[in-house]
Queue: 2 jobs
Job 1
Amino acid sequence: SSGINAEYGETELEEHQQEILANGMTILEAAVMEHNLLAISHIYKSIKIDNLAQLLRVPALQAETVVGKMIAEQRISGSIDQIDQIVRFDIKAQPWDEHINVVCNKVNYVIDLLNQFEPDFTKERLQHYGC
């Protein structure tokens, strides 16, 4: 039996959790691997498929298949470079970064309006601040 079943003990798993899926894993094993893959996607920008497989403790082909499925289902944002055997995860902006971006865009909008209606004032102020 697998490491996860041994870790939790066969008797502690519900019968449906012990069912073997088409990929040869139990439902619990698949859920744990997908959780770990999601965590890895937050830590790494890119990772070789062999290294990913080692972290997940599965064969490389299985790691590639699962990450590909999760990307296709949009549960992870990224891509697989099959030539170089690398998974690249897209880094999503953090909410704070998005907030800063919104504020900067609003400031730029106000500066554009000021420049449109008060060009001399705007030019003088921007030069004063070294812009």
Note: Confidence is low (pLDDT under 50) at residues 1-6.
Job 2
Amino acid sequence: GSSGINAEYGGARYTHIMAQNQIQELSAELKPNMDTLKTSLHTLMKSAGVTFTQNSAVDSVTTKPIPDVAVPSFERSLEEFSHNCDALLYELKQRRQALILAQYSMIMPCDPKMNYNQYKSLAKSHDGRVKELEGILTRLNSELSHDGDKTMGT
């Protein structure tokens, strides 16, 4: 009765704590990627501002300002920002796949007190999980090699 409910609640609480820990670890691991992305976004916006100012000066027939040497061209900034977005996306896809694999790889151990029918059912369950895991790995390999070709080509 109540011990089963407590065990379920305890398991849910444990799962929630594990999820929080995984999110904190993921945040810490992705912080360098996010910092790089923020910096490249800042540079992109600065380049866009300089380009906008130069273009508006040309349109108003005023003297053309000297370009800010410290700010890379808008095209270069946009390319760098896009590359950093792709790198972060790739990292997130890898993390998502790792979490999916971890979820599917949790196989229940056999209890020595099981009867044959329970054991047979558990063995079938394990076989099904292994087949699902194999499908996930195949799809992951395909996605990563396909995505890698796209990002390497740009």
Note: Residues 1-11 have pLDDT under 50 and may be disordered.
